[in-house]
C-alpha cells in the first residue's frame, strides 16, 4: 500500500501574512487591517493570517478563513495623564513591556512571509522593535509600513515623523511603504516633504474603498422606507454628532438610523435609546459588523471623517455630510476639506446642532440624493491591488536567507529612535 506523507514535497508551503495595528483608540486601524486580511485571503485562500491588535473588538469584525487574532493588553489615552494601560494599573512602560513580549513571541513562532504594520513603524512605545529586529535577523519576512492618506497637518506630521525617527526606522526594517490613498487627492510625500529614499519605497495603493461588502448581516431595515444614516466611528468622541442627529428633524418620509459605535459613553447611549423610544422615526444600534450595506442603502449619510467612514461613503456614491474631528488630530478635517474641494462631499465645522444637521438633510432630500462628482475620479480600488503587492513580497521573502544581525551602531541608533 502506498504511504501518503503528511506534507506533499512539491507543494509550496501556505503563505503566512501578519498584520499589526496598535489601536490605542477607536476601531479605525483594526477595521482597515481586517479588510486587508480579507482581500489577501480571498485572492489566495491558501494563506494563513495572524492579526495582532490592541482592540478586543477585532474578534467581532468580519474576518476571513484561516485568520487568528491575538489581542494585546489594551492601551488608552487619558485626557490628563496621556497614554497608559486601559485596564491595568501601572505605567505605559509596564503595559508596553508585556505587549512587546507577546508581539515578539507570536511573530517569532508564526514567521510570516509578510508583516504589514499599520501607521506607527515601531508601534506604541517602540513595542515592535524586538520583533522587527528578530525578523530582520532571521530573514524570510518582508516588512511593510501601511499609512493612511493623511497623518495630520503638515506641521504636526513632520514634527512627529522626526521625533519618531521614522525615516531611519524605515531604512532599517521596512521593504516598502504603502499609502492607502490617491496621490492626486493628497500626497503625503509632498505634503510632508519626505526624503527620496522613503519615496523610492512607497506605493500608492488607492483608497480602500470598493470591495468592502461582506456577508455579515446588517440591522433589519425596511427597503420600502427610505432612511438617512448617521455614523460616529468608534463613538469615543462622537457624542455631539450622535445627539444632534437624534434630535434633528428628519426629511418627510424618512427614518433615521444611528450607529453609535462601541466606545460611546454608556450614559449617552442610554439617553439616545430613550430618545429613540419616544420617536417613531429613529432607531439606534451600538455596533454593526458590516456597515457597508447600511451606507449603500441610505438616502443620505452624516458621518465623522475617519478614514474608513469616508472610504465607505465615497464608494457608495451616496450624498454625504462629514463632521470631522478637529482634536487631538486634524487628520479628519484635512481629508474632509480636500475631498470637499473636489466636490465629493459636504463638510460641517464648528458647533454641531440639530438644526444644522436637519437643514442639510432637508436640502439633500429635496435634491434627490445625487452625489456631486469631480471631473477626475478618485482611485478607490486599493483592496483589489494589495493582493498582488503581497504576492510579489512573498516571492522576495522566500528568496531571502539571512540578513546580518544589526551592528552595535545600528542597535544604538534604534535605541535612540525609541527613547
From TrEMBL:
Keywords: Transferase. Pfam families: Glyco_tran_28_C. Residues 230-344 form the Glycosyl transferase family 28 C-terminal domain. It comes from the Bacteria. GO terms for molecular function: hexosyltransferase activity. This is Predicted glycosyl transferase. It comes from Krasilnikoviella flava.
Amino acid at each position: 500500500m502506498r504511504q501518503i506523507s503528511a506534507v506533499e514535497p512539491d507543494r509550496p508551503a501556505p503563505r503566512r501574512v501578519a498584520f499589526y495595528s496598535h489601536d490605542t483608540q477607536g476601531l479605525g486601524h483594526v477595521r482597515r487591517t481586517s479588510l486587508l486580511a480579507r482581500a489577501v485571503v480571498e485572492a489566495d485562500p491558501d494563506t494563513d493570517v495572524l492579526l495582532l491588535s490592541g482592540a478586543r473588538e477585532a474578534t467581532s469584525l468580519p474576518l476571513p478563513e484561516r485568520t487568528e487574532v491575538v489581542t494585546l493588553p489594551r492601551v488608552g489615552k487619558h485626557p490628563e495623564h496621556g497614554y497608559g494601560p486601559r485596564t491595568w494599573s501601572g505605567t505605559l512602560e509596564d503595559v508596553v513591556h508585556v505587549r512587546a513580549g507577546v508581539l515578539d513571541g507570536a511573530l517569532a513562532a508564526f514567521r510570516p512571509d509578510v508583516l504589514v504594520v499599520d501607521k506607527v513603524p515601531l508601534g506604541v512605545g517602540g513595542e515592535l522593535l524586538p520583533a522587527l529586529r528578530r525578523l530582520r535577523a532571521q530573514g524570510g519576512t518582508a516588512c511593510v509600513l501601511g499609512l493612511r492618506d493623511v497623518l495630520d497637518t503638515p506641521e504636526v506630521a513632520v514634527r512627529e515623523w522626526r521625533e519618531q525617527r521614522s525615516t531611519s526606522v524605515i531604512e532599517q526594517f521596512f521593504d516598502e511603504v504603502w499609502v492607502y490613498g490617491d496621490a492626486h487627492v493628497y500626497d503625503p510625500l509632498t505634503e510632508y516633504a519626505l526624503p527620496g529614499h522613503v519615496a523610492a519605497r512607497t506605493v500608492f495603493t488607492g483608497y480602500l474603498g470598493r470591495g468592502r461588502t461582506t456577508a455579515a448581516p446588517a440591522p433589519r431595515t425596511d427597503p420600502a422606507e427610505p432612511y438617512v444614516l448617521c455614523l460616529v466611528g468608534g463613538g469615543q468622541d462622537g457624542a455631539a454628532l450622535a445627539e444632534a442627529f437624534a434630535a434633528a428633524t428628519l426629511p418627510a418620509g424618512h427614518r433615521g438610523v444611528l450607529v453609535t459605535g462601541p466606545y460611546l459613553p454608556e450614559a449617552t447611549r442610554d439617553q439616545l435609546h430613550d430618545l429613540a423610544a419616544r420617536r417613531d422615526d429613529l432607531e439606534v444600534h451600538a455596533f454593526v459588523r458590516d456597515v457597508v450595506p447600511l451606507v449603500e442603502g441610505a438616502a443620505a449619510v452624516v458621518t465623522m471623517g475617519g478614514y474608513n467612514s469616508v472610504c465607505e461613503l465615497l464608494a457608495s456614491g451616496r450624498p454625504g455630510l462629514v463632521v470631522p474631528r478637529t482634536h487631538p488630530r486634524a487628520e479628519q478635517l484635512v481629508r474632509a476639506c480636500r475631498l470637499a474641494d473636489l466636490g465629493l462631499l459636504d463638510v460641517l465645522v464648528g458647533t454641531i446642532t440639530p438644526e444644522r444637521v436637519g437643514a442639510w438633510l432637508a436640502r439633500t432630500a429635496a435634491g434627490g440624493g445625487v452625489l456631486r462628482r469631480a471631473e477626475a475620479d478618485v482611485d478607490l480600488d486599493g483592496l483589489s491591488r494589495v493582493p498582488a503587492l503581497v504576492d510579489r513580497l512573498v516571492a522576495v521573502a522566500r528568496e531571502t536567507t539571512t540578513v546580518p544581525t544589526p551592528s552595535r551602531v545600528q542597535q544604538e541608533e534604534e535605541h535612540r529612535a525609541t527613547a
